[in-house]
Specification:
Largest sheet: 9 strands, mixed
Distance between the termini: 11 Å
Number of domains: 1
Number of helices: 8
Radius of gyration: 18 Å
Strand content: 15-25%
Length: about 325
């Protein structure tokens, strides 16, 4: 029987739908609605158009409203974007996971997205948004899980989810968000964090009692960039990893910085180089001296896909996992 090779694009064409998920139990805003992208595997052999839009005008290897969907319950990975990010922040990874049989859902953390943060004019406004995001982000992820599993499908356009195979994935502030989820949502079996932020960014009470260490029943992988100056090794990654539990794994991507986890990494890094920031441990390396974007994305695709294939499923979308 064929097996998945996580280094390569998977066997499934990838579709994407856009939906809006109400969050009526949000403690700060009962009218909160989360724009959410859902990537999913379609049946092999379906013709792909790769016509999905991208907010930065970048390639997005998914077809809008692709059908027919697979008719079996599938594992779900919920992605949490970084501070000032957006739901389409890392489509290279979302589509790669979907091609291997996963449904991947990514909400906008409303109030903490790129356009909204850019519109803020004062430090006080940014501080207020940051404090609200600390409360709302984990609620957002839990709400998406509940909407996709417990509330059924709104139509044949939304794939069926296997509630026994749920994972959380996040970058930066989203990595912190993902680590908060297992204590709130017992169905989450695995967590993958990409350059996760912790106390230096989130604040001294980044984690509540009982959230860390993670349960040994929750698989955990941290992928970090060796040249990241925003989420620094000594100040952020190493102290956080030490609290996750003995079963967690940590792997470093050499010659990479914070934005190698995103679409348009080279563009974002150049903006990063030219944006003065106080209190950084060192200056960012020039992009020309760092790993190429395509190489970084291939490195991440392989490791994240292999992790979720191993931790969430012995069988994904009709193919035995490698």
């Amino acid at each position: 029987m064929p097996t998945h090779d996580p280094n390569q694009r998977g066997p499934h064409p990838v579709g994407v739908i856009e939906t809006r998920i109400p969050s009526p139990d949000d403690p700060l805003d009962r009218d909160r609605v989360l724009p959410t992208a859902i990537w999913y595997p379609a049946r092999p052999g379906v013709r792909e158009r790769d016509d999905a839009a991208h907010p930065l005008g970048l390639p997005h290897r998914a077809t809008t409203n692709l059908s027919p969907l697979l008719d079996e319950p599938l594992p779900l990975v919920v992605f949490s974007h970084g501070n000032s990010g957006l739901r389409q922040q890392s489509t290279f990874l979302m589509t790669h996971l979907a091609s291997h049989g996963f449904v991947v859902a990514a909400p906008d953390h409303v109030g903490n997205t790129f356009d909204e943060m850019m519109a803020l004019e004062t430090d006080d406004e940014r501080r207020e948004v940051h404090l609200r995001a600390r409360t709302q982000r984990p609620v957002d992820v839990g709400r998406v899980i509940t909407a996709l599993i417990d509330e059924g499908t709104e139509s044949s356009r939304r794939p069926a989810i296997d509630p026994a195979r749920i994972g959380a994935l996040g970058h930066s502030f989203g990595g912190w968000t993902a680590l908060k989820i297992p204590a709130r949502e017992s169905r989450v079996r695995s967590v993958c964090c990409l350059a996760p932020a912790s106390e230096p960014f989130v604040g001294r009470r980044a984690f509540d009692e009982g959230e860390l260490p993670l349960s040994p029943e929750v698989a955990a992988l941290v992928l970090a960039a060796a040249d990241d100056v925003l989420v620094d090794r000594s100040q952020s990654i190493d102290p956080l990893f030490a609290r996750l539990g003995d079963h967690a794994r940590l792997e470093w991507m050499d010659d990479a910085d914070h934005y190698h986890f995103c679409d348009g990494a080279e563009l974002l890094h150049k903006v990063h180089e030219n944006t003065p920031r106080p209190n950084l441990p060192r200056s960012p390396r020039p992009i020309a001296s760092l790993r190429r974007e395509g190489d970084a994305h291939a490195w991440l695709n392989e490791r994240v896909t292999d992790f979720f294939l191993t931790s969430l499923a012995t069988r994904v979308a009709g193919v035995v996992a490698a």
